[in-house]
Write a structure and sequence with these properties.
With about 230 residues, this protein is α+β, with helices and mostly antiparallel strands. The protein has six helices and eleven strands. The chain folds into two domains: about 45 residues, no CATH class; about 170 residues, Gyrase A, domain 2 (2-Layer Sandwich), CATH 3.30.1360. The strands form three sheets. Strands 3, 4, 5, 6, 9 and 10 form a six-stranded antiparallel sheet that branches. A three-stranded antiparallel sheet has the order 7-8-11. Strands 1-2 form a two-stranded antiparallel ribbon. The chain is globular. The mean pLDDT is about 85. It holds the Pfam family SecDF_P1_head.
Length: about 230
């Protein structure tokens, strides 16, 4: 709990939320943001788990199936290695519905999930990199594209793995997934050996900054629920 408290405090400082207090009361972490309706506190408490996965296939959402009642049921249908189960999950996943699997997927298994804007359902391979691979992350406005982006710097060991991933996936897509949602899935044009990459999505200045803070300060060790 103390580790989660420290990470949330770092995130609050990075987001410029002055006056934010994070306290431990019994088994509860209490986040107080002055003059906030609760939205900022909820964002601070998001798990912030990054995975980098190869994209195996993608399709427009149809959302024909019933929603899974909980994370366990969602994991069975959406993290199966059976191609038939995977195709059914792609056909049934409703990107407009609340995701019970959010932030609770198993990085070692395939994953059927949605793009952040709801435009695609993607089947992803197991994760190759996670938060531990990142040594720094910074948000800024790209002057060429005029889009808000997040520049990511990998650790030395992770840089080698990212180079291998991009080498194996030239002319294919890789996905940057945060809390089970695909925030960016670019096409790999050539191998990346510089130990850095850029995440570009439909970000505002605020959301890009929040993502950078989550990646820079690490994921929360446990998920939190609002009370």
């Amino acid at each position: 709990m103390s580790a989660a408290k420290q990470i949330i405090q770092w995130r609050a400082d990075g987001m410029g939320l002055s006056g934010t207090t994070v306290t431990i009361k019994d088994d509860t972490l209490v986040i107080t943001v002055p003059d906030d309706d609760g939205a900022a506190a909820r964002r601070l408490a998001q798990t912030g788990e990054l995975t980098v996965r190869p994209v195996l296939t993608a399709a427009p959402p149809t959302g024909k199936g019933p929603a899974a009642p909980d994370a366990t049921a969602a994991r069975i249908s959406r993290q199966s290695s059976d191609p038939a189960v995977q195709q059914q999950a792609i056909a049934e996943l409703d990107c407009a519905a609340t995701d019970p699997l959010r932030g609770a997927d198993d990085p070692a298994l395939p994953l059927v999930t949605c793009a952040a804007d709801g435009s695609e359902v993607l089947l992803l391979g197991p994760s190759v990199l996670d938060n531990r691979a990142i040594s720094d992350a910074r948000a800024h406005l790209d002057p060429q594209s005029t889009r808000h982006v997040v520049d990511v710097t990998f650790t030395a060991e992770a840089a080698d793995r990212f180079e291998a991933l991009t080498t194996e996936n030239v002319n294919r897509r890789i996905a940057f997934v945060v809390d089970t949602v695909v925030v960016s899935a670019p096409m790999v044009v050539s191998p990346t050996s510089a130990g850095q990459t850029q995440i570009a999505g439909n970000f505002t200045a605020e959301s890009a900054g929040e993502l950078a803070n989550s990646l820079r300060f690490g994921k929360l060790p446990v998920p939190f629920a609002e009370r």
